[in-house]
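Annex B. Sample input.
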Amino acid sequence: MFLGKLVAWAAMREGKFVTFLPAYGAEVRGGTSHCSVVISDKEIASPCIEKIDTLLAMNQPSLLKFMAAVKKGGDIFINDSMIDSVPKSKDINLHSYKFSDLAAKLGNIRTTNMIALGAYLKKNKIISPETILKMLPEAFKGNEELIRVNEQAFREGLRRE
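Annex B, continued. Sample output.
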């Protein structure tokens, strides 16, 4: 959820139109959750979407639940650390990274999402990485350690090929 909020917030800072629609599982704490973020240069009529341009799949259940909704030619960024098998599709661009393993090597597994965001923005220039970096102090309320580890993780994601 944090990642979706950060992306939406950054896109608004860049003057784009944005919708953010969170969805939580039955168990709010510890259950599954997902969100959709729509970013456009034009007004957005509805936050609801039929097809997904890009999916960040952080675990196997999320991949299985949402992969079919990715449009032809769309992208899926896969957290290969947490996903054992990926259904084959010739119509979707798959990008596999060991996001969780990279976060663990950096010393904070909770930064997995920031590595994923960096890898996503490396491929899809929908918002500027500089905007994300400028927002980290505000997002983490001036907590220098959280800002540091999340910036480090984000930059690690930007280095992904």
